[in-house]
Specification:
The complex is a heterodimer of chains A (302) and B (255). Chain A is of the alpha/beta class and 302 residues long. Chain A has ten helices and 14 strands. Chain B contains eleven helices and no strands. The relative contact order of chain B is 0.15. The chains are: A alpha/beta (302), B mainly alpha (255). The complex binds adenosine-5'-diphosphate and magnesium ion (MG).
């Protein structure tokens, strides 16, 4: 069962700006999915569409098999969302914010109170329950939104950059909390522009840039790809034969051009020795840029 | 259905908590203003005036002033609360939930009515210090108070949906509602106006709301009470549909 399934999603904003240009992705139930991308990639827009804050221009979205065009309320009941920007009333009390939200999902007050207590305690906010939200620190406000997003026990929790601007220690605590939620069987989708965060938490990673999905793969596969480097060698004579070499894949582009993709562990010296052993002589060499790595460098520089 | 009821009550409760949290802004000012009206128009000036329809001037304006408070406060509450929910973005709490739009409208309207009717009740209590107000028909008084409050809370909601900046929440109250209320028979009987102005006044819907409400207390009226009821029901339905239409379109709330 897919917790979320997005097909050919397009969004053009009123301004004419095309924020999503045909995104398709699936998130399986129980997965911890990371949606990575630089600022402006379209992460928040995608989440906005799933949670009805943004209207899609075209495409299909299904939540646990429910098409949002058929029964959005039923889909919404299964989703909890923690937005990127604070979106509660700063004048309301912490506990009221959480119990009201439960009420909006139709949960009777007694139950709402019990759930609010459970999550406010888990997130270290129970002592602050009677304080108005404006008195909370930045990290507490973020945790308040997590408690609010969980109060109706959604099967799918979506967090939009939950650790942006949260200091390192708190970030670790939040990671542990999210890992626990996921272990209890809750599907989690998280957007981030920290590779480290996705690496730590997620088992599947989608990378989005300029409104397009650049990559959608398991974490292991992604890390492997990032670890690979490709070089292009021009040889002085046509290559007759080239024996295989462990951890390197050779690709003959034309008679005198060889492409070699190697893991970073393998040294170039070894490749040159291998060429020499095969009677292949190199005239020149250049580095072929790694799309993914460039993208990540771009994200980190921000 | 039960879920919708719980959601409706949650919105209404949040609104009521808000009204009492900022009671210095919501409940106190109208009571002070209306007390001043009672003192100045009722006691100082009113004592110099002739009776209207057999009632002294104070008894005549008391229902008008109560109704004026109900109108203003029902409207102000929904417009400012909904605008503030858009401004602080906490309206998203509702939008991401399965709460249907008609429940959102009703929830905010119940909030507006809570403020409008509470202030109305407070002003009615204040009026007792100045005049022994008769009660001709409780049914009419309550019917007009509730329907008028409902209509203006709905109207405030429409304004709240359209409002894009703080100024937008006071334009309609300042330039439309306040003038129409002052000209709506709070302070005078239509019979005192020249024929021409009587006819013009009858195009002002607020005349019927205040007139019907006053009828509930004094049993006298210069308008058709039934026309007032019909008009309020029509406005209720119309404004409710406008609200639903705007929210269904996502106007001002979804991008
Ligand atoms: N309401 C809007 N109107 C016009 N453009 C918008 C709107 N919201 C977002 N955008 C644009 O859409 C693009 C994607 O934004 P967003 O989804 O917020 O990206 P991300 O969350 O990945 O940083 C950005 O270029 C942004 O400027
Ligand atoms: Mg974003």
């Amino acid at each position: 069962m897919n917790a979320l399934s997005i097909e050919n999603l397009y969004k053009t904003y009123g301004s004419g700006f095309e924020a999503l240009k045909g995104i398709s992705l699936d998130v399986r139930e129980g997965e911890f999915f990371g949606l990575l991308g630089p600022n402006g990639a379209g992460k928040t827009t995608t989440i906005g569409i799933i949670t009805s804050l943004v209207t899609k221009t075209a495409g299909k979205v299904k939540v646990f098999g429910i098409d949002i065009d058929d029964d959005f309320p039923a889909a919404k009941r299964l989703i909890g969302v923690v937005p990127q920007e604070y979106n509660f009333s700063i004048f309301e009390k912490v506990q009221d914010i959480v119990t009201q939200q439960a009420g909006y999902y139709g949960m009777p007050y007694q139950q709402a109170m019990a759930h609010a207590e459970k999550y406010l305690r888990k997130l270290g906010l129970w002592e602050k329950r009677s304080v108005s939200a404006r008195e909370l620190s930045g990290g507490m406000k973020r945790r308040l939104m997590i408690a609010r997003g969980l109060v109706h026990e959604p099967k799918l929790l979506i967090l939009d950059e939950p650790t942006a601007g949260v200091d390192v220690e708190l970030r670790r605590g939040m990671w542990t909390f999210l890992e626990e939620l996921n272990r209890d069987g809750r599907t989690i989708i998280l957007t981030t522009h920290y590779l480290e965060e996705a690496e730590h938490l997620c088992n599947t990673i989608g990378i989005i840039n300029h409104g397009m999905l650049v990559e959608n793969t398991s974490k292991r596969e992604l890390l492997r790809k990032l670890d690979m480097e490709t070089f292009i060698f021009e040889t002085s004579a046509p290559v007759v034969s080239l024996s295989p070499l462990e951890n390197v894949s050779f690709n003959l582009i034309d008679e005198t051009t060889v492409e070699a993709t190697k893991s970073k562990a393998r040294s170039l010296n070894e490749i040159f020795i291998h060429f020499e052993a095969n009677n292949v002589f190199i005239e020149s060499m250049r580095n072929k840029s790694n799309r993914l790595e460039e993208l990540f460098l771009g994200m980190v520089e921000k | 259905m039960k879920a919708n009821l719980i959601s409706l009550l949650s919105i209404a409760k949040k609104e009521i908590i808000r009204i009492f949290r900022i009671w210095v802004q919501t409940l106190v000012p109208p009571v002070i203003t209306m007390t001043l009206y009672f003192i100045i128009f009722g006691s100082f000036i009113g004592s110099q005036l002739l009776d209207i329809g057999g009632y002294d001037y104070m008894a005549f304006i008391a229902p008008g002033l109560i109704m004026m408070s109900i109108i203003t406060n029902s409207y102000t509450n929904t417009v400012s609360s909904f605008f503030s929910a858009k401004f602080q973005r906490n309206v998203e709490e509702l939008l991401v939930s399965p709460t249907p739009n008609w429940v959102i409208v009703l929830g905010y309207v119940v909030g507006g009515m809570s403020r409008g009717l509470s202030v109305g009740l407070l002003v009615a209590l204040v009026s007792l210090a100045f005049v022994r107000l008769p009660l001709y028909s409780l049914t009419y008084a309550v019917l007009f108070a509730v329907l008028t409050s409902f209509v203006f809370a709905l109207a405030g909601m429409v304004n709240g949906i359209f409002a894009k900046k703080f100024d937008d929440i006071s334009i309609i109250p300042t330039f439309v509602i306040t003038p129409l209320t002052y000209l709506g028979g709070v302070f005078y009987s239509l019979a005192l106006l020249p024929d021409f102005w009587q006819i013009v006044s009858k195009a002002n819907p607020i005349i019927y709301m205040i007139g019907g409400f006053r009828y509930g207390f004094l049993g006298i009226t210069d308008i058709s009470v039934w026309l007032g009821v019909v008009m309020l029901l029509m406005f209720s339905v119309l404004l409710f549909i406008v609200n639903l239409f705007l929210l269904d379109k996502g106007y001002g709330i979804r991008t």
